Amino acid sequence: MPVDEVRMSRRGFLGIGVAAGVVTLTACGSGSGSSSGPLVMTVWGGDADRKTYQKRIDLLVKKYPELKVKLQLIPSDAYAQKVQTMIAGGSGPDIMQVAESVNTYSSKNQLLPLDDLAKKAGLDTGKRFGPVGSIYTYEDKLYAIPDRSGAITVYYNKDLFAKKGIEAPTAEWTWDDALDAFKELTVPGKQWGYTGAEWFPQWWSLAYQNGGTIIDASGRPAVDSDEVVEALQWAGDLVFKHKVAPSKADYADMGSEVGGDQAFPMQKCATHANGFWVTAGLTDAKFAWDIAPIWRGKKQAVSAFGSGLAISRTCKQRDNAFKAIDFLTSDAAQRQIIDDGEDVPASLAVQQSDAFLKPAWMKNDVDMGAFAESSGFIFRAPFIPEWNEMISAIDSNLANFWLGKESAKKALTALQSDLESIIKSAG
Amino acid sequence: MAILSKTASTGVPKSGTSSKRRRREALWFYLFVSPWVLGFLVFLLGPMIASVYYSMTDWDSFTPPTWIGLENYVTLLTDDPRFWRTLWHTFYYAAVSVPLGLVLGLWLANLLNKQVRARKLLRTLIYLPTLVPLVATAMIFRQVLAPNGPLNDGLGLFGVSGPAWLLDGNWAIPALVVMSAWSAGAATVLLLAAMKGIPRELYEAAEVDGAGPVRQFWSITLPHLTPIIFFNLVMGMIGAFQVFAQVYILVPKGKLRAAYDGAETMVPYLFDEAFGNYHMGYASAISWLLFLVVLVFTLIAFRTARRWVFYETEVK
C-alpha cells in the first residue's frame, strides 16, 4: 500500500538523519571488549571468506585452546559503517580487518600501536612480509599486521594470444609493447584487446610506473604532475583513441553488472589487469588462460590489494588478541588462504611455497609465481586518513574523463584542487 | 443540554459507574498507546534531540564531539556547492516525479473505472510494480536504460536516438523519474477506490443535463477526488524529498559516478557525509535543513489546499 510505503521511507529518512542520536544513546552502555569472553573479530567478504577465516581460527584454537575467537563476517559494502557504529556504540571489535582506510581509524586514535607487542612476540614484519610489512604504518607506528596481499597481475587469454601469434606478456613489456598487442587483439565492436584501466589501482600503477605519485613525500597531493597526466591520458587513450578497451557504454550493453572481471571470462576482452579474485570467475573457463606480472613504464610499479589485522584501542585482552593475530598471519594459518583459493596470503614464504605455486584446486597450469615476482615492485599507496574522501574525489573528477568528455590534464587539475582542500581541511 | 448535565451530576450511582468506566477506558488507552509512546521517546524523540545537538558539533563518531555552534549550517548555506547541487536535484526530482505520478495515476484510474474487459486483471497488473522490491526494479531498469537497451531501442523506432541514461549526469534524474513512474499503480488504486465512491446519481443527473464524458470528468470526478489527490500529493512530496534507495541502488556511487553526481539528492548526500566521510555532525545539520524544506513545502500544500480540495461534508 502507498501509505505503508511512504511511512517506510519516512522512517528510513529519520533513521538515517538521526542515526547520530541512536549511536550516542547506546554509547553510554557497557564498555567494549569484555575481559574474559571470546575475542570478537570482524572481517568483510562473503561466504567463502567466512569459511576460510573460520578454518584459520579453528587452527588457532587447536594450538592455543585457551583462546576463544568469535568471528563476525560483515558484507563488504556495509563493513565500514557497521564497524563505525560498533565502535561509536562502545562495543567495537577486538580484532578487526583493515585495508586502505586503516588510517581513518588510527588517526582517530581507534587502533592500538602494535610495535611493542610485535617486539615482545619476536615478530619481524619485514622478514615475514617483505616491503609490505610496513604498509600499515602511520606516523612511525605499526597499526596492523598484513594478512592478505596480492599485486595486480595481467590475466591473458592464451587462446586469443596464440591465434594472433602474440607472445605472452612479461614484466619487461613497455607501454608500446602492450598497446601493440592490444591493437592486434581487438575486433572493433566485438572484442577488445584489454580491460582494466579505469579503476584507480589500475591507472595508479601506470602513474607510478611513469615516475608520478598521488600524494608526494611531504604529504601534498601531486596528481597534476606531468607524469601522472601522461599516464592517465595513456590509459584513457586505450578506450577512446585506440578503442582497444571497452568504454562504459560498451560494458553497459554487455549486461547490468558487467565490468572487466566479467568481460574477461566472457572472452570479450583478451587481457585484463586486476586482483587475485578474477581467478574465481575462471575456474570453469572454456579457454586457456594464464597470468603474468604487469608491464613496465620508466620503471616497474604495481598496485596491490590486501588487508591486515588490527587491534582496537578498546580491546581488553591485548596480549591474547596479538597472540591470535601473530598466529593467523603465520605460515601455518596463511596456507589456508591459498588452499581455499580465497586470496593471496601476505606471507612471502607461503607465496613461494608449493602450496601456493601449485594449488590443488587449480585446473589450469597457471604461473602463480607472478605474485611473488610482482611483490618486489609493489609501490606504497598513500593510505591517508582522508582515504574515503580522496577516492570519492577521484571518482567524481574523473567521471567525465572516463566518458571521453575531458582531457586527463583538465580532470587532474580539477582533482588536484579538490584534493588540496580535502587534505588541508581534514588535517 | 443543561438538564442532561444536571441529571448526570446528581445521579450519584450513574456518574460513579461512568467515571469509573471512563477511568478504566483511559487506563486501557494508556496501556495500548504505551508501546508507541515508548518507542517514540526512545527511538525517535531522543535521537532527534541528540541530532540537533550533534548538528552543532564537529563529530567523527569516534572521538568526542566538539561544539562549534552554527558553523555547520553556515558552511552548508554559504560554502558548500554540493549542498546546493543536491538541493536542486531534490527539487528537480520532486517537481517532475510527483505531478507525473499523479497525472499517470489519475489517467490509469479513469481508464480502469470504465467497463473494460479484464478490468480486474489490468488492475492487478498496474499495481504489481509497486510490490516488486526496489532492488529488483533497479536492476531491471539498469538494463532497460542501457545505452543500447530496450528503452533506447524503442525510442529508435521513432527516430529518436536515446541518451546514455545512466552514464550521463544530465540524464540521471530523468532516469529516476522514469523509474518512479513505473510504480504509479499505488496512487491508481487509491484513486480508483475513491472514484467508485462517487454517487452514481450525480453522473445520471449530468447525463440528463447533456454533459459528455469529458465534462463529467472535470465537473464531477475530479472535484470528488481532490482529497485523495491532496493526500497523494503530500505523501508523494515528502517521499520525493527523502528519496534515497532509488538513487543509492540505480546509480551507485562507486560504479556510475557521473550519473550519481548528476542525481545525488539530499538524503544520499547526508548518508555519504555521515558514513563515508565520517562527518556525523555535518550530516546531522543536513538532515535538519532537509526537515525544514519538507516542513515548508508541506505547509504550503496545506495552505493552498483550502482553495482546491473539496470535502463532501463541507459546506461552501
Give a description of the structure.
The complex is a heterodimer of chains A (427) and B (316). Chain A is of the alpha+beta class and 427 residues long. Chain A has 2 domains: 31-150 and 305-375, Periplasmic binding protein-like II (D-Maltodextrin-Binding Protein, domain 2); 152-303 and 381-426, D-Maltodextrin-Binding Protein, domain 2. Helices cover 44% and strands 11% of the residues of chain A. Chain A has 20 helices and 10 strands. Chain A has helices at residues 2-17, 19-27, 47-63, 79-88, 102-106, 115-121, 125-129, 158-164, 175-185, 200-209, 226-240, 248-254, 260-263, 318-328, 331-339, 348-351, 354-357, 369-375, 387-398, 408-426; strands spanning 39-44, 69-74, 95-98, 137-138, 141-142, 145-151, 153-157, 271-274, 289-293, 304-311. In chain A, the strands form 3 sheets. A 5-stranded mixed β-sheet of chain A has the order 2-1-3-10-6. In chain A, strand 1, helix 3 and strand 2 form a beta-alpha-beta unit. In chain A, helix 3 (47-63) runs antiparallel to helix 15, helix 10 crosses helix 11 and helix 19 (387-398) packs antiparallel against helix 20 (408-426). The longest helix of chain A has 19 residues, at 408-426. Chain A is globular and about 65 Å long. Mean pLDDT of chain A is 88; it is low at 1-32. Chain B has helices spanning 2-10, 12-54, 71-79, 81-112, 119-131, 134-144, 150-157, 172-181, 185-196, 200-208, 213-241, 245-250, 257-263, 266-275, 280-308, and strands at 57-58, 66-67. Chain B has 2 domains: 2-54, no CATH class; 81-308, Orthogonal Bundle (MetI-like fold). Residues 1-12 of chain B have low confidence and may be disordered. Chain B is globular and about 75 Å long. Chain B is built from 15 helices and 2 strands. In chain B, helix 4 (81-112) packs parallel to helix 8 (172-181), helix 5 (119-131) packs across helix 9 and helix 11 (213-241) runs antiparallel to helix 15. Chain B has a two-stranded antiparallel ribbon with strand order 1-2. Chain B is an all-alpha fold. At the A-B interface, helix 1, helix 2, helix 4, helix 12 and helix 19 of A face helix 2, helix 6, helix 9, helix 11 and helix 13 of B. Chain B: InterPro entries: ABC_transporter_permease, MetI-like, MetI-like_sf. Chain B: Belongs to the binding-protein-dependent transport system permease family. Chain B: It is found in: Cell membrane.
